[in-house]
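Researcher: Sequence recovery benchmark, item below. Answer with residues only.
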């Protein structure tokens, strides 16, 4: 499950990635941000403490975002 929160006022918004699989999983999604760096600010996996990679959105806003096994990742635009 992947959802985007738009933000409001001075808040930038975020993207939340939930993963219920037993391995790292992600998907290509279209965000509202074009050519922006997305930094993982919070994450947790059940048995995996690996850190999600920073990602960049393409010119049309698409990016592949991942979360650890049975866990989540929160990406924030910079």
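Model:
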């Amino acid at each position: 499950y992947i959802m985007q929160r738009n933000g409001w006022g001075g808040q930038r918004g975020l993207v939340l990635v939930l993963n219920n699989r037993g391995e790292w999983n992600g998907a290509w999604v279209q965000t509202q941000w074009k050519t922006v760096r997305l930094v993982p600010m919070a994450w947790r996996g059940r048995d995996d403490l690996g850190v999600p990679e920073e990602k960049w959105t393409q010119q049309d806003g698409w990016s592949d975002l991942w979360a650890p096994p049975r866990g989540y990742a929160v990406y924030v635009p910079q």
